[in-house]
């Protein structure tokens, strides 16, 4: 279970970085400004803690109640819907704060904020550790 969580975390970080580089290359080719590669890579990597929270909640659900595992989809779907339609529907700001995606600064338009980054990493670490611990304690019979 621990190696699966670590593989999911590592691959998420790598894919976020590669997506940022690819988007930055496209922007640099169109605008002629090579600085977009680094700027957009960092902007994509700023989403790492939110992605790790979702993956860690999945691990926690799988460890505690495997039948409830599919409920993890509520987090990204809720985050997408509130992020997309929240401003249009004039939803209160606290509703967006219920999603881990709502705490990520919209880089490069907003500057990087360390506090939500660190807090989300701590939440992800706690959820992952809880999931691995709960998985170890499950009553699984071996054949």
UniProtKB/TrEMBL annotation:
Q: Which UniProt keywords apply?
A: Membrane, Transmembrane, Transmembrane helix
Annotated organism of origin: Rhodococcus opacus (Nocardia opaca)
The domain of life for this entry's organism is: Bacteria
Instruction: List all membrane-crossing ranges.
Output: 42-64, 71-92, 112-135
Name under which the protein is recorded: ABC transporter permease
């Amino acid at each position: 279970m621990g190696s699966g969580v670590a593989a999911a975390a590592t691959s998420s970080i790598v894919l976020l970085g590669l997506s940022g580089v690819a988007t930055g290359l496209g922007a640099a080719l169109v605008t002629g400004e090579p600085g977009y590669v680094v700027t957009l890579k960092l902007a994509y990597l700023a989403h790492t803690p939110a992605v790790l929270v979702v993956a860690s909640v999945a691990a926690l659900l799988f460890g505690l109640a495997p039948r409830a595992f599919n409920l993890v989809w509520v987090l990204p779907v809720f985050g997408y819907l509130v992020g997309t339609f929240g401003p249009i529907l004039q939803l209160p700001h606290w509703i967006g704060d219920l999603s881990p995606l709502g705490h990520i600064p919209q880089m490069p338009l907003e500057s990087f904020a360390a506090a939500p980054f660190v807090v989300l990493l701590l939440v992800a670490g706690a959820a992952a550790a809880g999931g691995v611990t709960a998985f170890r304690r499950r009553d699984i019979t071996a054949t």
